[in-house]
Amino acid sequence: MLRHNADMFSPGCDRADPDALREICAIIAARAERTAVEGPWQSGSFAALASHGALAGFIPADCGGTAAGEAALLELLAAVAERCLTTALAVSQWAAGCRIIAGGDARLRAARLPALASGTETTTVGISQLSTSRRHLGTAALTATSTGSAWRLDGLCPWVTGADASDTLVVGGAAPDGRAVFFVVPRESPGLSIAPPLHMLALSGSRTSSVTFDGVVVEDAITPREGGVRTGGLATTALALGATRAAVNIVAAEAAARPALAAAAEGLQTEAEAAWARLLAATAAEAGDRDRLRADANGLVVRAAQAALTATKGAGFVTGHPAERLVRESLFFLVWSCPQAVSTAVLCDLAGLDRAS
User: Fold this and answer.
1) What pTM did the predictor assign?
2) What are phi and psi of 156, to 5 degrees?
């Protein structure tokens, strides 16, 4: 029986309702194999999140949501990632789009956010070109030109999760003066073309595509708040730690039958718990060591997945084994929305160099 959409979060709460969280996690886990192939929109995982009130927690209270606290939302993202990283990725991109819309004017917020909170409409985000993807080329991948009463979009969003499964795309373009401007673009807009989903090393079920804009006309523009746009952040770290938990669980299960693995399982568990405590502490700080935390989480999820593979031996090397999947999925964090500081730190770790050098 589906829950009413207020059950997951009470307004402004710092923790998800434990019963609702367990129930939705069980549903996500049961549908994970199908989701990995079809995506959470087709498997029903996204609809289940909406019906349990999980999506409403990301939406302001005056726009049909319950405005849960950041710690509660990170807890949800990590729990979903532990069961199905494909679903967690889709939710994180949906949430990023909602956050940008919430920064728009009252009319846009009222027109878009209530339907997103209830799950009757879906959205996603295409903003990596503003901060990480293709920045080295020196020219804007997606340009936004004012035509007086509207804007014209031309160019490319190279990475858009669930583009062909979402009703709208929240995208960021560069204005002639260099400013970043956001737009909510209906998927069926004339001039918008969605490429077939990419076949990736992992998470192909996220239906990530490139989207081309050829004179797409939109009316509503959203000017980013002070500080500009930043991809990744604490949500990305929460997903990495959720995936880490899945890998640690495998090592712990193997250690139950093979005591020689107990020290490794305990060490990884302790490290994962310490990283989670740092993540929760970071919710109270505007900056702090967020990039360092992200780099540490990236390294941890890769190591934990490799530990799971080592613990399961040959069985884990067979396609379809949970350890095999976790190894592939862990590598996603090395390329997903990594600011230069994070990429540099990870490369230093992989090369055995001091990060400060």
Assistant:
1) 0.93
2) -140, 140
Q: How far apart are CA 84 and CA 92, in angstroms?
A: 13
CA neighbours closer than 13 Å in the CB half-sphere of residue 263: 1
Amino acid in position 317: F
Per-domain boundaries in the chain: 18-121, 124-222, 234-351
Instruction: For residue range 241-293, list pLDDT tens digits in order.
Output: 999 999 999 999 999 999 999 999 999 999 999 999 999 999 987 656 888 99
Amino acid at 246: A
Write down the H helix ranges in the chain: 18-30, 32-38, 40-43, 45-51, 70-83, 85-102, 106-118, 234-257, 262-282, 290-316, 322-330, 340-351
Q: Which residues of 97-116 are buried (b: 16+ CB within 10 A; e: fewer)?
A: bbebbbebeeebbeebbbbb
Compute the distance between CA of residue 235 and CA of residue 9 in angstroms, rounded to an integer. Answer: 18
* CATH C-level class of 234-351: mainly alpha
Q: CATH number of the domain at 124-222, please?
A: 2.40.110.10
Ramachandran assignment for 182, one of left (phi > 0), alpha (psi -120 to 50 degrees), beta (any other): beta
Q: Torsions phi, psi of 125, nearest 5?
A: -135, 145
Q: Which CATH class is domain 18-121?
A: mainly alpha
